[in-house]
Specification:
By secondary structure, the protein is α/β, with parallel strands linked by helices. The protein folds into three domains: 127 residues, Oxidized Rhodanese, domain 1 (3-Layer(aba) Sandwich); 99 residues, 3-Layer(aba) Sandwich (Oxidized Rhodanese, domain 1); 100 residues, Rhodanese-like domain (Oxidized Rhodanese, domain 1). It contains 13 helices and 17 strands. The strands form five sheets. A five-stranded parallel beta sheet has the order 7-11-10-8-9, covered by helices on one side. It has a four-stranded parallel beta sheet with strand order 4-3-5-6, sandwiched between helices. It has a four-stranded parallel beta sheet with strand order 13-12-14-15.
Amino acid sequence: MKTRRLALCVAVLASLAAAPMVYPVQALAADAAVIQPKDGWYKTLVDFDFMRQNVSIPPKKGVVIIDSRPAARQYDPGHIPGAINIPDSQFDKQVANLPADKSTLLLFYCGGYECMLSHNSAFKAEKLGYTNIKVYPAGSPEWKAKGAQVSVSAAHVRKLIDEKANSMLIDARPKRVADKGMIPTAVNISDSEFDKNVDKLPADKATPLIYYCGGMECVLSDNSAEKARKLGYTNVLTYPPGYPEWEKLHGAAASAPTLVAGKEKGSVSVASFEKTWKENPGSVMLVDVRDPKEFAAGTIKGAVNIPMNDLEKKIATLPTDKPVVFVCGTGARSGEAFDTVKLLGGKVQASFIDADIKFNADGSYSMVEKK
């Protein structure tokens, strides 16, 4: 019996010795077995669960998350919340962005299992004397695929504003704070008033929503983003540095340009509209009241379409906290829209453009005021 047991033990040990070593690196994760290390990878790997435990707004103390991808094309339009951007190609030039305390936990990531940038940067950090370095090899693709919150940079917010992109920028701070200054084009939906202002959100739940508030220590934008996701919005982003960073980069918000009355009652002058639309388009809501087919063929970029025949039943969707300007091709239907809203719209600040307008498919236009 003893001889048989000894033979069995020897066989088991021999089989274990013959088995390949699948994980020659240390993997810190509950499901670390799914990580298949590749040549050139950094020695210490972490998984989604480990990252999720260390991603937080406000940022978790003693942890720095580093996105090693290029800025404009990859980091700016979507990164893990709280991550700083040190592109691997710029690592040596941006060493000053690393923490002074070399025992700080550094979590590097990039574009997934085929991306070596995070591993390259991790090795560079190790050579600088950092002692607590880990790499999240699944990176941004897995983070997004698992439905975790994604953030954007100030540069991306600026790009969306400049391009008048089909998106909504939302300031989640209380109104009394937001009234002192907001990012251009933003609407204020205070997190505490979220449920009362759901009607301000776009009907199309695929519209990108970008929430921000009072900086990295402010949780209001994350709270509101989560509420929006529960309502079924599928492209909800945050800008964690929020208004404090924006103000530092671009200065305090300028006062909104003033719409000046035109010749026709209820109209605004072309010059004042164009100045407002160029300098602070978020300060007004521009409504094209032409038919959907006309709107689809060309409109002013940034306008929304509420056909004249649908306006009466949609008056309740119009904002009351900023001017609403109606537009059409000749001033006829836009003037009718103004009359309808003045009669039925309560507190809506309505006006219209009395002009001959040519709309182009690319969102540009030409406008000649009626004499």
